[in-house]
Specification:
Layout lengths: L2 H16 L4 H18 L9 H21 L8 E8 L10 E6 H27 L2 H5 L7 H11 L1 H18 L8 H27 L13 H21 L3 H22 L15 H22 L7 H7 L18 H10 L2 H4 L3 H22 L7
Antiparallel strand pairs: 1-2
């Protein structure tokens, strides 16, 4: 699969997640993403990083709840418990330590933290499914320097996890299986040395392949076009999300994207960047990317609807308020038909792709079958 198809799918789901705080929908999206990752990831080292992102998501939820309880959670009337309140000086007015903790404050914080955790999980799913080296080969020529930095930054966490696993495996083979804080010092130095070796190998490879080589002067007017296009796209996104002039924002966003694409094409004409065996973008990749985009459009479109101007039947069917259930007063979250469609779009890559492990096993079986047929076709040796 093309790596940018997985990134488009994950980014679209992340945008959809940013438009809701419904814990039921967030839990279903997180579960669906984990299922897709576990069934469609490869055996590569970066495919094992989803566990670290799950731990990071749980850490984010725990820290948000901890600071909410510590700094005062008195919004609402349903008091769960009361902590001893610590008086602060006058220059810290507006900040409280301790005091009553209410269910409304805890619920609101939990919803916000859960949304942020699922957005982190979207990044982890893209890292686990997309090959970062193949993504580097599929960017416009004008952005290949920035793409190198981005791909290296995104692959730091998977490579660090791989280095730690390799060092721990080597320590176990030597008979040292301690997992205490004292063993951290013995693991840190080999991991640091491995990271330095990887950096030197990467620098040598980039130098050997002529990284940064150009073949002419830059095209005149490229930089102003890209700056104006970027400003127009940014203003379009702001108007599209935060103002009633969403039609103007949509036009500015489209014009900015077109201008940015033309500027990148003109700027890349002066670079000597070649592609070895370019990855094809097939119809399957289009469907996977479209599933993420449709999920974002569906959530944002339902969120923009006004329940006061809708018929009662549409309110029951769509219910825009269900995307952000009330926490003061407390309201039990519900699921609607658009939310179930979003979960189905998250699971869309499953019927569109094949399991990589199954494909590997099937190819191995085919090779074994071919060897057996060849052995049967060959004449038996004559022994003297």
């Amino acid at each position: 699969m093309h790596p940018w198809a997985w990134w488009c799918w994950a980014i679209g789901i992340g945008i959809a997640v940013s438009g809701t705080t419904n814990p039921l929908l967030l839990a279903l999206i997180a579960t669906a993403m984990v299922v897709v990752v576990m069934l469609r990831r490869s055996e590569a080292p970066w495919a094992r990083s989803v566990r670290a992102y799950l731990i990071l998501a749980l850490f984010v939820i725990g820290m948000r709840l901890f600071f909410r309880i510590l700094l005062g959670g008195s919004t609402g009337e349903t008091v769960l418990f009361t902590l001893p309140q610590i008086p602060l000086p006058e220059w810290a007015a507006g900040i409280t330590l301790g005091g009553p903790v209410t269910a409304e404050a805890i619920t609101g914080t939990l919803y916000e933290a859960f949304r942020l955790a699922v957005m982190l999980l979207c990044v982890g799913a893209a890292n686990a499914l997309a090959n970062p080296r193949q993504a580097l080969r599929s960017v416009p020529a004008a952005l290949y320097e920035a793409s190198v930095a981005v791909v290296i930054a995104l692959s730091v966490a998977p490579q660090l996890i791989e280095s730690i696993a390799r060092v721990r495996r080597a320590r176990r083979l030597r008979g040292d299986s301690t997992a205490t804080l004292r063993a951290l010092g013995t693991i840190a130095m080999p991991v640091l040395a491995d990271a330095i070796d990887r950096s030197l190998a990467l620098a040598a490879g980039m130098e050997a392949r002529g990284f940064g080589r150009t073949r002419g002067l830059p095209t005149a007017g490229t930089l102003p076009v890209m700056l104006i296009s970027s400003a127009a796209a940014t203003l379009g996104v702001f108007l599209l999300l935060g103002s009633p002039f969403w039609q103007t924002g949509a036009w500015l966003l489209v014009l900015g994207m077109i201008g940015g694409g033309l500027g990148l094409r003109a700027a890349g004409a002066r670079l000597r960047v070649t592609t070895y065996r370019p990855l094809p973008w097939r119809f399957t990749e289009t469907l996977i990317a479209a599933s993420g985009v449709l999920a974002a459009v569906l959530v944002l479109g339902v969120g923009w609807l006004d329940p006061d101007t809708m018929s009662p039947a549409l309110v029951v069917l769509l219910d825009p308020l269900a995307l952000s259930p009330s926490t003061d007063p407390l309201q039990w979250p519900t699921l609607t038909l658009p939310m179930l469609l979003v979960v189905a779009l998250v699971l869309a890559p499953l019927p569109l792709t094949r399991p990589r492990r199954a494909a590997t096993v099937e190819s191995t079986r085919n090779d074994t079958r071919v060897r057996l047929l060849r052995a049967q076709a060959e004449p038996e040796p004559t022994w003297r």
